[in-house]
Amino acid sequence: MSVVDKIGVPALLEQTAEECCELAHACLKMARKLRDENPTPRQIEDIRDDLAEEIADVHLCIGMITNYTDILTNNELFDIENAKRHRWEDRLNAHMDFEKEEMELDDVVYSD
User: How much is the average pLDDT of 34-56?
Assistant: First the structure.
């Protein structure tokens, strides 16, 4: 009997949402530490451990959703991830091309 059989899909979704919130907080704490603009007394190793644990929790919940419910299959998830990855890369490339064009335009404007 799986965890989903024991707790049900609604509870799994609630657990997933809770873990996502905890992951969000861990990500923000790591960004704060890396940026070092708003100091935190926590050591980076501890923050990293917390982040890793929250990533694992979310990953586990997603695995439960894809393997034990009809909400989403692993193949569907893989396809969505690939599409999103390509869209993200395309946006970054377009942004870098735009910045390059702006710099070239600035060179022309300021060199006259």
Answer: 95
Which residues, 6 or more positions from 85, have their beta carbon under 8 angstroms from its beta carbon? none
| Percentages of the chain per state (helix, strand, coil), in multiples of 5 | 85, 0, 15
Q: Are 20 and 54 in contact (CB under 8 A)?
A: no
Which tokens sit at 11? 């509870």
pLDDT (tens digit per residue) in 64-110: 999 999 999 999 999 999 999 999 999 999 988 877 777 776 776 66
Contact 66, 79 (CB under 8 A): no
CA distance 6 to 8: 6
